[in-house]
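Exercise 7. Given the encoded structure of a 264-residue chain, write a plausible sequence.
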């Protein structure tokens, strides 16, 4: 049979519990004090650095926002000037277009500069100012900051505009990298390279290249028709589908080709 605890034992247990609670509270207070002291020490030691980092981050973010806004504003201004210049060109006001394009070509973004310079060169070429136009095309072709598409088309336009003054070797050297099937500029570059081969008397190189151009469905029909005829003159057959070729010729000429009905 269990004994009933005496009042003395009860008091002892309560005292022990109270002491344990007081010790636990004291340990918590000490722990909190140590933690606060640690935070205070860290804040004292690293607070300035942390504040500086936060301030720099805010400044950098603000600078990025300003730069982005500034870039967008410049792009909008350049785009507006390019559109206005195009309007002047459509109206036949070449000189006014040149004036619109000049500041963009000098101070715009790399893409806007390239576009404006190309347009200026085109205007000058239309005004029979070939030398200056070629210089502008060459400047875009040599500009590493300009988009690759602009550099490539500028190279083709420069060679095309100065073709009569270039040696065939120069034409081939500059355009052969672009005169490969699948390249976006294959048709334009390939035709000029083929003509340069003909100047060198290398019909065995010009003919197959002309045939490839003529058979490329992605190229303009006028270019395909021109190279098909030239390939035929050289003795190379560029016609894969006679019926399709006849249809293309009818669409190009706007009338039936003589002998087409008989051929069909």
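Solution.
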């Amino acid at each position: 049979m269990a004994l009933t605890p005496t009042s003395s034992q009860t008091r002892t247990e309560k005292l022990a519990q109270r002491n344990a609670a007081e010790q636990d509270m004291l340990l918590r207070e000490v722990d909190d004090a140590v933690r606060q002291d640690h935070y205070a020490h860290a804040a004292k030691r690293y607070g300035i650095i942390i504040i500086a980092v936060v301030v720099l981050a805010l400044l950098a973010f603000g600078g990025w926002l300003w730069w982005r806004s500034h870039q967008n504003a410049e792009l909008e201004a350049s785009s507006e000037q390019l559109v206005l210049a195009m309007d002047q060109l459509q109206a036949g006001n070449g000189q006014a277009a040149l004036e619109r394009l000049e500041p963009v070509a000098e101070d715009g973004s790399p893409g806007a500069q390239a576009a404006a310079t190309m347009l200026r060169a085109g205007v000058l070429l239309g005004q029979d100012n070939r030398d200056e136009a070629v210089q502008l095309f060459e400047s875009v072709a040599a500009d590493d900051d300009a988009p690759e598409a602009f550099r490539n088309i500028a190279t083709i336009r420069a060679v095309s505009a100065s073709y009569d003054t270039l040696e065939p070797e120069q034409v081939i050297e500059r355009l052969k990298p672009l005169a490969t099937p699948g390249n976006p500029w294959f048709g334009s570059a390939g035709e000029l390279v083929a003509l340069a081969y003909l100047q060198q008397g290398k019909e065995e190189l010009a003919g197959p290249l002309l045939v490839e151009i003529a058979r490329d469905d992605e190229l303009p029909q006028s270019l395909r028709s021109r190279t098909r005829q030239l390939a035929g003159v050289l003795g190379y057959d560029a016609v894969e589908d006679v019926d399709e070729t006849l249809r293309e010729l009818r669409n190009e000429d706007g009338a039936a080709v003589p002998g087409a009905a008989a051929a069909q």
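Remark. The radius of gyration is 40 Å. Students should compare their own answers with the one above.
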